[in-house]
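Format notes (please read before filing issues)

Several people have asked whether sequences and structure tokens are stored in separate files. They are not. Every record keeps both together, in the order shown below: the sequence lines, then the token lines. Line labels are part of the format and must not be stripped during preprocessing.
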Amino acid sequence: MIRKAVLPVAGLGTRCLPASKAIPKEMITIVDKPVIQYVVEEAVAAGIKEIVLVTHSSKGAIENHFDKHFELETTLEAKGKHELLEELRNIIPDDVKIISVRQPEPLGLGHAVLCARPIIGDDEPFTVLLPDVLVDGQGLERNDLAGMIEAYEKNGQAQIMVENVPRDMTHKYGIVDLDGETPEAGKAAPMASVVEKPAVEEAPSTLAVIGRYLLPGAIFPLLAETRPGAGGEIQLTDAIDTLIAREGVQAYRMQGATYDCGHQLGYLEAILAFAKRHPKFGAGFQDLMQRYAAEE
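Then the structure lines:
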């Protein structure tokens, strides 16, 4: 059973400026919840019980969001605002723990994951979820993270979640080089390597890494030995390349949809997708969209 997830949230969020100047990018809202809450809910729905936030001193708002706010809850109860009170109390289930560790310097994703080593340990597999990407499991029997966990339990190899992208967009992503045929959605296949932002004509496939990983604890010694790469940072992909050679790694092809909330248009698309089906605001939002479309 995979029970732990690492969420690297220490980044400065420069892609989201100026919105992220004083507010952590992970706390920018999609309708009525911050992005980070959707990501935590995704993990919880897949059976995760421990969320490890790799954070920074400027990101206290994230920890506060998942903590109990006694004064606010007391005020809501006194005013009879029981629906809001229940929403606050149910941000995370009682059996899920939020644990924070600090990343003292911005030394890359690999370093951020390595900061979680004292909590995860070297003997237990775990997931990594990048919080700027929302993975939407609407309409699926199980979300893609749960599907990736099942693939790991079946095959015993690390998993990297990928999605199919247009070939002319491959230069924007890490693209996996498969060791065999392309898997169908919801399935996994062995991979040979990850190629970072290849030229379109050189892309080995159209399967892009989208920010979800399932890794064995053995990745930690590899990260500790990984020398700084591009930008002077410790790259997770460098350690994964070593893991491919030693143990094998598979690409899990997702079934749902992704929204890159670190990019303004991806963020706006996420708002459209989640707002139109919101249980409270969905109908009103769709009326607004029709009204504005009619004015064009």
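For reference, the curators noted about this record: Residues 282-295 form the longest helix (14 residues). The mean pLDDT is 93.
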